[in-house]
Write a structure and sequence with these properties.
about 325 residues, alpha/beta, Nucleotidyltransferase, domain 5, 2 domains, 5-stranded mixed beta sheet, two-stranded antiparallel ribbon, 13 helices, 7 strands, about 15% strand
Length: about 325
């Protein structure tokens, strides 16, 4: 039978193999990711204390920079708020800096109102060039009783999850936009907030079928008029009446009906979308698969700082992999 022959062939060939071409550089970058090297610029020293308020209310003691620094250091080493406070205090003592450290109560309260600094979204992309944007989402666990309580006592679990939406630069692997929503939010609804965070011109936009629909194409083309949008249409998708203007989605539908899905994926470069799933796995592997904060606002802060950490670690070193050639004996 044909399907048995294909299965036997795949078994003989085995999994695709890749070789890292810059192993020495990549290995050194992995070591730098957890190097405890801390420097404080004169600008940071001046900006550690919160600016004087001009409105009514109490005067905050710490700036958003101080809150961000403490939370970031704690997230890198997987610490709770009290341990984060202690770690930063010991580091500043060893550096001989006379700076006070936000206590864990302040960190918990200020995480709900923290605003990202301009440094968090710095981009290293070459100006004037277009980028290939990959968009996807993943679930992050949040605080709750869990499945064990539900199975043991029959009680309804409070455990839920949040949905992290990421836009990734296909060339650099950098997360260039993100948003955190509840688990009921649809993927396509977060497209506009993600695009609003991207300043570069988009050359190609790739996403999975959850983003299929003419509104998605319209939103991407409003951002970048010449963008190529690659999204697999639904299995029951039909082209719009010929009287209406032609759309890339109609071309995808027609191409898939003529050549099939696999050939369409090859011709459009849809396989690049796997890099978005790689970014999701990288986030969960480095930052973690769950959110520790309990309030939604603090969880949004946690996700934003997690993305910043991930990008900085990626900048330390990224593997350059190439696919290895399959030997002739393996294909016989």
């Amino acid at each position: 039978m044909p399907h048995k022959h294909n299965a036997d062939r795949r078994h003989r060939i085995g999994k695709m193999k890749f070789k890292v071409m810059n192993w020495a550089e990549y290995e050194a970058g992995l070591c730098r990711r957890c190097s405890l090297t801390v420097w404080v610029t004169p600008e940071a020293l001046l900006g550690w204390a919160a600016p004087r308020r001009k409105t009514r209310g109490g005067q905050p003691r710490y700036s958003d920079l101080a809150i961000e620094t403490t939370l970031m250091l704690g997230m890198v080493f997987g610490l709770r708020l009290r341990q984060s406070e202690g770690l930063l205090r010991s580091v500043l003592d060893m550096m001989g800096l006379d700076l006070s450290v936000p206590d864990h109560t302040t960190l918990s309260r200020r995480a709900r109102t923290w605003k990202p600094s301009g440094r968090s979204n710095d981009r290293q992309h070459v100006a004037g060039g277009s980028i290939h944007v990959l968009v996807d989402s993943t679930g992050l666990k949040i605080y709750g009783a869990g499945q064990w309580l539900e199975e043991k006592h029959g009680a309804k679990s409070r455990r839920g999850w949040r949905k992290l939406h990421l836009a990734v630069d296909a060339d650099s692997g950098e997360v260039i936009a993100h948003s955190l929503t509840d688990q009921e939010t649809g993927d396509a609804s977060q497209l506009e907030p993600l695009l609003d965070q991207i300043n570069e011109e988009i050359g190609q936009f790739t996403a999975d079928g959850a983003y299929d629909g003419y509104p998605t194409y319209d939103a991407v083309l409003r951002h970048s008029a010449g963008a190529k949008v690659v999204i697999p249409p639904r299995s029951n998708a039909v082209e719009r009446p010929s009287a209406q203007s032609c759309c890339q989605r109609d071309d995808h539908i027609a191409s898939m009906q003529i050549d099939g899905r696999l050939k369409w994926q090859t011709s459009t470069g849809y396989g690049k979308r796997a890099l978005a799933e790689t970014a999701m796995g990288r986030y969960k592997g480095v930052i973690g698969p769950r959110l520790r904060a309990r309030s939604f606002l603090a969880q949004q802060t946690e996700a934003a700082i997690g993305v910043t950490i991930l990008n900085r670690m990626l900048a330390c070193g990224r593997p350059k992999s190439v696919r290895c050639e399959v030997s002739a004996e393996a294909t016989k």
